[in-house]
Amino acid sequence: MPRRKKLPPIAFMSYVRLDDEHEDGRLTQFRTRLAGEVRMQTGLDFPIFQDRNDIKWGQNWKSRIEEGIDASTFLIPIITPSFFNSDACREELERFQEIETELGRNDLILPIYYVDCPVLNNETLRAKDELAQLIATHQHTDWRPYRFEPFTSPQIGMQFAQMAVQIRDTLGTKTTTAKSTRKRTTRKHIGDGRRASTAKRRDSIEPSYPPEAEADVEPEGGGRAEPAKLVVDQMHRGDYVTISEAIDAAKPGYKILVRPGFYQEALVIDKPLEIIGDGELDEIVVEAKDQSAVLFKTTMGRISNLTLRTIGDKELLAVSIGSGRLLLDGCDITCRVVGGVAIHSGADPRLRGNRIHGNGGSGVFIYPNGQGTLEDNEIFSNAGNGVLIKSGANPTVRRNRVYEGESTGMFITGGGLGIIEDNDIFENKNAGISVSEKGNPTVRRNRITKNGYQAVWVFDGGGGTFEDNDLRDNERGAWKISGDSEANVVRNNNQE
Questions:
Q1: Whether the Cβ atoms of residue 336 and residue 361 lie closer than 8 Å to each other
Q2: Which of 72, 73, 92, 96 is nearest to 84 (CA)?
Q3: Axis-axis angle for helices 154-170, 26-42 (nearest 10)
Q4: Same domain, 354 and 260
Q5: What is the pLDDT of residues 79-96, one digit of tens each?
Q6: Which residue in 158, 350, 401, 410 is a FRET match for 131, CA 20 to 30 A apart?
Q7: Nearest-angstrom CA–CA distance, 410 and 388
Q8: Rounded Cα distance, 447 and 451, in Å
Q9: Domain count of the fold of the chain
């Protein structure tokens, strides 16, 4: 057998073209995002060839076969029912499996389970198809829950990061320090319903390397792979006793579970991670003095079920989001000095189901080109505005309850935009919504009632479109619009 050459990393995406056309090119986008994420995780270019009609596909596939495919070559099959009916896809999978067997490997075929396939889920059907059996024995990424999610969502970003880390580790760039003492991550296989055992948790709470975390084996019929986990426990029954230590040790894509405790620290998130409270919300408290409780400055992430507080005299917000897309959900957020959440510098987070209250200024402050989506939050009892949108910011604010504030429910100013829909804005001491200085939101289907001033106050050259809102029962009526703003305001079908 000819000696195999060490070749640069490369991958081939095996898929059915009609599937990509049906998805409006989403599989092509998938390829681009994955190649970019691998480059970010490894520092190496990672071309993924896709089009069988492209001469580069044939040239590279042929050269790899002739020179000998090694551990730097991957096949990424996109698994749909059509895949099993494609002769070309089946041939590629069979050929690659032969080479994988020759190398004694089982990690060079990386299936993406994209659309539900009975031949994989049903043991009887799977037993009749050798390729279905082959796919079932390989690590896979279950993309079925994410098929209709935007590629910009935090969950999607986490999945790409995990796949990129898997490829990086297969390429051999993973640090192997203290290898013999680490726990091994249990991998999942399609159709394997057994629960795999994991190594015993280490007793040390200050390891020199991040502990590998457990991942459950999926149930019969498949399921998405769980991210590796680290546990933070102040009673020394986890991997770390502070959240910051766990963040420093975690690899991109890890999940950090935080058990009940009073954590006096500031969290700086500089890599894609999930940080999730594992217990009752009011028993998991992160309190930072003269610092933001959370400073988010990476591409993707999730923070869930934590009580986040900032105390002290400095003018800071409890959560500062200055980049990327953070999913902030189910948290309780307070800063007595300034405000609850700042979204700025073009960041595009998702805030869902949070309690943002008792802040010294605005509950949510969105400024210089900040974006984001605020959904189903309780924003109340803040000394400033419930939501302040300014300086070209353009968020979507829907289905929130904004109430009992000392000022305006929502204030859009300084060229701020935004879609404001289906919210309850009530019992604020000033107006329900105020717009000024070239602010121009779209405001529709909101209930803006029982506020201390008007439902809507537009002044100093503000404007906006107001449609299908309930503006009844406010202390000073439905509207106050200044003469220099009247021409900028569109009103349709509002109840007054």
A1: no
A2: 92
A3: 60
A4: yes
A5: 999 998 888 888 888 888
A6: 158
A7: 6
A8: 11
A9: 2
